[in-house]
């Protein structure tokens, strides 16, 4: 479940730190969170899609590692990000 260009641009604009920021941790976590939610919806309807389930677990692990990194750098940025995205930390 990939994101189209308009969705990616919207996520980048809402989570970027400065004007040319496209790859900060905040942007990466926001994109991963959106892909995770789309894939979760897909798996609700297609319960036997095991390869997509494996990809979902890998994305969740990657998002967790990125969140741990940002938490180690700044607790305030971490709490702001999880409240903005509405995810559990």
Structural account:
The protein is built from 4 helices and no strands. The longest helix is centred in the C-terminal third of the chain and has 24 residues, at 50-73. The protein is mainly α and 89 residues long. The chain has helices at 5-15, 25-45, 50-73, 75-85. It has a single domain, classed as Helix Hairpins, CATH 1.10.287. The relative contact order is 0.13.
Please give a handful of descriptors for the protein shown.
89 residues; mainly alpha; Helix Hairpins; 75% helix
Overall pLDDT metric: 93
Name of the level-1 CATH class? Mainly Alpha
Helix proportion of residues, in percent? Answer: over 70%
Provide the gyration radius in Å.
Answer: 14 Å
**Number of DSSP-assigned strands:** 0
What's the number of domains?
1
Order of helices and strands: HHHH
* Strand composition percent: under 5%
Count of DSSP H/I helices:
4
**What's the story with the biggest beta sheet?**
none
- Spans where pLDDT lies below 50 across 5 or more residues: none
The structure class reads mainly alpha
Oligomer, anyone? single chain
Molecular shape: globular
CATH fold node name = Helix Hairpins
Instruction: Identify the CATH homologous superfamily.
Output: S15/NS1, RNA-binding
